[in-house]
Amino acid sequence: MTIESADPPHGALSRWTISIARFHPLAALLLMAAAIRLPLAFWPNVIHPDEIFQYLEPAWRMLGHDSIVSWEWRYGMRGWLLPSLTAVPVGLGDWVAPGGSGAFVVPRLIAALVSLSIVASAWCFGARVSRTHAIIAAFVAAIWFELAYFAPHTLSEPLATAVILLAALLLTHAPLSQSRLAVGGALLGLALVLRFQYAPAIAVLALGACWRHWRKLIPLVAGGFIALGLSGVADAAHGAVPFAWLIANIQQNLLHGRAAEFGVTPAITYLYSFWMMWSVAVVPLLFAIWQGWRHAPLLLATAVANVTFHSLIGHKEYRFIFLSVVLFIIIAALGSADWIQWLRANRAWRRWALPTGAAGWVLISGALAAAGTMPVYWMRGTGAAQLAAELRGDPALCGLALYITSFHLLPGQDRLVGRSPLYAFYPADPLAAGALAPVAQKAAPAFNRILSHRDSAADLPAGFSQRNCAGVGGAEACIFTRSGTCDAAAAPLFRLNEVLVRVDR
Mean pLDDT across the chain, nearest whole number? Predict the structure, then answer.
């Protein structure tokens, strides 16, 4: 966009006006991306329990409240930097909207805003080629269903990806100044702390940016150590040995096979995952990636390195390669912009090429967002959130028991029971000794609400009646109630955190 004036522009005000006009398309695309992402922060779906129990629950605990402590935290496998950063929006959310919802929504709003850096980075990568490439790259990053789906979730993968994109933007812009290298290194160091499994991809990006001039690694590494130092300070502030979590994580997952307990799949799993997520659209996307990789070869190398490394790990989840998904989509968008430019060379298509290309991306993204397994993903965790909201708003609740109901399918202690005690009864608990129903009956005075699967109703303590039900983890879970008060002394050994220690979960 240009500004026409009878007088030549002079002064800072004119330069500012020109700058606003020049970047107006990016501002519009960022607003559109925000309009898609921010409402999703209020939709209570959960991609994976980690977003609750590895980040939000520890952040809530940092603020002086009770929370559920998962086995990863008991084994010291998680660093304190991300929960420390998350504690600020968690505390703000609880202050603005007490009762559990605010502490859940505000961190998601912040995560959604952070994801906008991916849209801005896509614009800048495209702008190095042409204005058309900038618009298409940012537009696709704004509307692509996977990027929107992951945006509001407090997971390390989308947060680290947002940071890596900014670093890649700095490190692939010539000439590389000392300050740009240092800032890029600090961002990569931060991404490494957020998601250390992205280390091979980070290494490819860093080495690819500096391979012609190895001395450039010095300010880059120096910047990285600054971010690592901040992480070490966060660990030490919580009484932990800096980076001991990294050693513990590798030890538990690689030497003791803890991650393998959650499933092991073949090396080609991620290729199949792309087919499951993109369906037949994988064909034009592959052609677009082939067309666009020359505009960002280092991004392609980073994406491939990330998929390759994660393919070697037995336990696989699609979210682990989110960085690669983002990079592939941006590269495909750049490739499609080439085709749009070819169309614009034809006078008949000059006016319609860009809208047609954008509409094609919208149709593909919209179709994939509503097809296959995506409807299930959009609804994942919403049934548990519905039951949790009913329990949290129940003024008569004085104690809740989970009866053969996995805690990790639920939205955290505060959203479930607030300050009321939370109990659990699992068959694997040694104290149950194969007699779970009698044990629960004896402990029943400690709670007046039970959350259990519908088919377990006959085994529940006497006096409880079924209320509302919802889908939780592929089965129907229901709230069972009894009238009266609670006596916490009846079940001191069945507090959830104590049970999790015994069952090692």
Answer: 93
Q: Which two tokens stand for residue 127?
A: 């702008």
DSSP label of 461: P
In which band, very low, low, confident or very high, does the pLDDT at 3 lie, cut at 50, 70 and 90? very low
Tell me the C-alpha to C-alpha distance, in Å, between residue 387 and each of 164, 411, 451, 464, 469: 37, 10, 9, 17, 7
* 3 state SS for 4-46: CCCCCCCHHHHHHHHHHHHCHHHHHHHHHHHHHHHHHCCCCCC
User: Alpha carbon 389 to chain centroid distance?
Assistant: 22
Compute how many other C-beta atoms are within 10 angstroms of the C-beta atom of residue 15.
11
CB 109 within 8 A of CB 152: yes
Any bridge partners for residue 465, and if so which? 481
pLDDT at 112 over 60: yes
Q: How many CA atoms lie within 13 A of 122 on its CB side?
A: 36
One-letter amino acid for residue 444 of the chain: A
Cα–Cα distance, 108 to 38 (Å, whole number): 8
What type of residue is 242? Answer: P
**How far apart are the C-alpha atoms of 65 and 110, rounded to whole Å?**
22
Residue 377, phi then psi, degrees to nearest 5: -65, -40
Residue 18, both tokens: 């020109």
pLDDT for 363 equals: 98
Left if phi > 0, otherwise alpha if psi is -120 to 50, otherwise beta: which for 434? Answer: left
Show Cβ contacts of residue 411 under 8 Å, excluding neighbours closer than 6 positions.
44, 46, 52, 104, 381, 384, 385, 388
Q: Specify whether the CB–CB gap between 224 and 184 falls below 8 A.
A: no
The interaxial angle of helices 178-194 and 217-237, nearest 10 deg, is 40
Phi (first) and psi of residue 204, to 5 degrees: -60, -45
Asked if pLDDT for residue 20 goes beyond 60, the answer is no
Q: Are 59 and 87 in contact (CB under 8 A)?
A: yes
Radius of gyration in angstroms for the set of CA atoms belonging to the chain, rounded to a whole number = 25
* Closest alpha carbon to 161 in 133, 121, 220, 214: 121
pLDDT in tens, 256-311: 889 888 899 999 999 999 999 999 999 999 999 999 999 999 999 999 999 999 99
Q: Report yes or no: 162 and 50 within 8 Å, Cβ to Cβ.
A: no
Query: What is Dmax (Cα atoms) for the chain?
Result: 89
- Digit-coded pLDDT (tens) for 345-394: 888 888 899 999 999 999 999 999 999 889 999 999 999 999 999 999 99
Indicate the helix (H) or strand (E) that contains 266. none
Round to whole Å and give the CA distance between 299 and 157: 17
Residue 419 has pLDDT above 50, yes or no: yes
The DSSP string of 99-136 is TTHHHHHHHHHHHHHHTHHHHHHHHHHHHTT-HHHHHH
Count other Cβ atoms within 10 Å, centred on residue 119: 28
Query: What predicted TM-score, i.e. pTM, was given to this entire model?
Result: 0.93
Within 10 Å of residue 241's Cβ, how many Cβ atoms? 12
Does residue 292 contact residue 334 with C-beta atoms inside 8 Å?
yes
